Amino acid sequence: MKIAFLGDMVIDRDVTVDPQVRCFLRSATHIIVNLEGIILGKGHGATPFKTYGSVIYNDHDAVMRLIETVGITHVNLYNNHMIDYGERELERTIEILSKAGINVLTGRNAFTLDGCCIQLNNSGLVETFGIYDVSRQFGQNINDMLLEKNPAEIWTNSIIHTHFGIEQVGGLSEYESRWFDFIAQFGPRIIVRHHPHCIQEPFQLHGVPCFPSIGDFAFNFNNKKASEGLVVMYDVANSSLECRRIECAQYHLRISSEIVDIQVREAPNRLSEMECSQLRMRYQSEYREDAFKSLKKAIKYFLGREKPEHVLSMSSKHFIQPYVLGEIL
């Protein structure tokens, strides 16, 4: 029996699907995707909860048609956009998925395949921002994983499915590398990660195949017309892997006929000097401390017009990758 892992999905209109996509996924017993945004209908009228960064959602009719067409069985909601529209819209998304028979991944999920019970551990986020704490039932915070009391008992022969990292870079930071090494030493079957929105080369640690980023599955929203990622097919019976590239361009989803060579390396690609330089520029231009805006937010809070969790700071250190700042600054 096989489990197929798909990347990040956000769509705002119908996506057509090449028959080869369905053909490749037909052999999978379970198909798992990261649903990066909650589900809203047209003319939804919902007000975004967030007051910073991008706010995204999936169009109800389009995403449900795509889920049915592809045959997706499980979705991950433990990501940094899960609460963009508040708890009520997250609950409504779960209701929509449940009515359609789609399973939402929790912190730990038991899959029974051919009589073999496989544990999937769902995790993600590094933010300490309070708004994500409402949904801990959908995953374990990766910092909490580092403090797990019985990791060998929990992770040995399991699947690690996680969502965190640095967007749009090809290499891993020191923190990420150490995290993968720490988890891999306990012998999970495979580690699959989302969030960077680009393909990062797989590698092997302690004999464990690691996919640091499988990129996007269908990430078409507003003006973004193309996305690319990997489809990872894992055979539980013999631990074999098959991997294909997939792209969604102009709202058409197609998969490559060529098998991706996953002769895994013994170490991950590390952040290059150029990537560190680009990250420094991103931090300084997009995520810098802004004392004036922080003061305005504090005043709004005391007037009862601002949520308390948005008053802390305008710095990205509270809601992006704080673990990498020491490496790039």
What does this structure look like?
The chain is α/β, with parallel strands linked by helices and 329 residues long. The protein folds into two domains: 2-259, Purple Acid Phosphatase, chain A, domain 2; 273-328, no CATH class. The protein is built from nine helices and 20 strands. The chain has helices at residues 19-25, 60-70, 86-99, 142-145, 151-155, 174-184, 273-286, 291-302, 325-328; strands at 2-11, 16-17, 30-35, 38-40, 57-59, 74-76, 103-104, 108-113, 116-124, 140-141, 159-163, 190-194, 199-200, 203-205, 208-211, 213-214, 216-220, 226-235, 241-249, 252-259. The strands form four sheets. Strands 1, 2, 3, 6, 7, 17, 18, 19 and 20 form a nine-stranded mixed beta sheet that branches. The longest helix has 14 residues, at 86-99. It is globular and about 60 Å long.
Under CATH at level 1, the class of the largest domain stands as Alpha Beta
Q: How many domains make up the coordinates?
A: 2
**How many strand units?**
20
Mean pLDDT, all residues = 86
CATH-defined architecture of the largest domain: 4-Layer Sandwich
Helix content: 10-25%
Question: What's the end-to-end separation, in Å?
Answer: 46 Å
Q: Which residue ranges are poorly predicted, with pLDDT under 50 across at least 5 consecutive positions?
A: 309-320
Order of helices and strands: EEHEEEHEHEEEEHHEHEEEEEEEEEHHH
Instruction: Count up the helices.
Output: 9
- Which shape, going by the Cα principal axes? globular
The amount of beta strand, in percent, is 25-35%
| Radius of gyration, taken over Cα atoms and rounded to an integer in Å | 19 Å
